[in-house]
Design brief:
The protein contains ten helices and eight strands. With 303 residues, the protein is an alpha/beta fold. The protein has a single domain, classed as 3-Layer(aba) Sandwich (Rossmann fold). An eight-stranded mixed sheet has the order 3-2-1-4-5-6-7-8, sandwiched between helices. A hairpin with a 2-residue loop joins strand 7 and strand 8. The structure holds nicotinamide-adenine-dinucleotide. Nicotinamide-adenine-dinucleotide binds next to helix 1 and strand 6. Belongs to the short-chain dehydrogenases/reductases (SDR) family. Keywords: Oxidoreductase. It holds the Pfam family adh_short.
């Protein structure tokens, strides 16, 4: 018995890299999977590999950010496999550039594929789960695993489009978790690291023997969140790679100031906030660098 026997999953961007590894792992756990990617032989090859291993898979190629394509993914899951239980949003692209050099197209492409791509599938999947929950008179089995990135935690300087899209995906995850909880939806986000086409230049070639940064190291967390244990997990953000799964804490209030007279003047703020931001030169405060020491296996031991 697999933990996902009888379940139906959609995985976007499943033609290679993390999406392909996640789709294979979901299928190995018993799920029937609908795989999306841009049309091409890569997607068909992943479908064939899952079938050759004894799994059930169907391709639904197309641009993940396309409205009709998102609807077609859910329709394919329902018509081909009888329902939908799990949505793994993973498709992505990079168009790295400093913000002052970035073109309109580079911005729009990344925001479209990542943020709109997550929204469109979520829109149709949650509508399906809401209907199913109302028809059944109880919460649906409904899992969403979204794909963010540590770029959103760090404000990746050369990726303003990507960092913004990934921050948006975390917010979308929280809004979905809150807005759809009553229908059974559990929505979480992962910030993975893996040696793929997207990161090959950064990480370099795989070592001889087992690769600690293989996409297969990320996939078990996706299976976990998609499975029975995921019932108790929602609105969480994970960092996952190699041998690490880290659960992020929420942003906290670092300091709060109250105006003595009930409202602030700029001069009073100068005095009150001045000590908090006394550091020279000023550096971004709203970043999370605690995940960086987890990076040894990715970029080598920190010097
Ligand atoms: N690899 C990492 O270390 C890392 C780190 C942080 C986040 N991520 C995220 O993980 C996800 C997967 O990345 P990966 O490393 O496997 O990259 P990848 O380039 O190997 O795979 C991305 C897949 O998305 C597909 N895709 C691109 N545009 C699409 C579209 N419009 N419609 C449908 N499919 C589309 C591509 O064809 C490709 O198969 C991405 O969202 C990425 O941002 C990866």
């Amino acid at each position: 018995m697999g933990s996902l026997d009888g379940r139906v999953a959609i995985v976007t961007g499943a033609g290679q890299g993390l999406g392909a590894a996640e789709a294979r792992a979901l299928a190995a756990a018993g799920a029937r999977v609908v795989l999306n990617d841009l049309p091409g032989p890569a997607l068909d090859a992943v479908v064939e590999r899952i079938r050759a291993a004894g799994g059930e898979a169907a391709a639904c190629p197309g641009d993940v950010a396309d409205w009709a394509g998102g609807e077609a993914l859910v329709t394919t899951a329902v018509e081909r496999f009888g329902g939908l239980d799990i949505l793994v949003n993973n498709a992505g692209v990079l168009r790295d550039r400093m913000v002052f050099s970035m073109s309109e197209q580079e911005w729009d492409t990344v925001i479209r594929v990542h943020l709109r791509g997550h929204f469109v599938t979520t829109r149709f999947a949650t509508a399906y789960w809401r209907d199913r929950s109302k028809a059944d008179g109880r919460p649906a089995y409904a899992r969403i695993v979204n794909t963010a990135s540590e770029a959103f935690l760090l404000g990746s300087a050369g990726q303003p489009n990507y960092a913004a899209a990934k921050g948006g995906i975390v917010s979308l995850t929280l809004a979905t978790a809150r807005g759809c909880a009553r229908y059974g939806v559990r929505a979480n986000a992962i910030c993975p690291r893996a040696r793929t086409a997207m990161t090959g230049d950064l990480m370099g070639p795989a070592p001889d023997g087992p690769d600690p940064m293989a996409p297969e190291r990320v996939a078990p967390l996706v299976v976990h969140l998609a499975g029975p244990a995921g019932e108790r997990i929602t609105g969480e953000v994970f960092v996952v790679h190699s041998d690490v799964v880290a659960v992020l804490g929420p942003p906290t209030v670092r300091a709060a100031f109250h105006a003595a007279t009930g409202h602030w003047t700029a001069a009073e703020l100068d005095a009150a906030l001045g000590t908090l931001f006394a550091e020279e030169p000023p550096r971004p405060g709203f970043v999370c660098e605690e995940t960086l020491p987890l990076a040894a296996a990715t970029f080598g031991e920190p010097s």
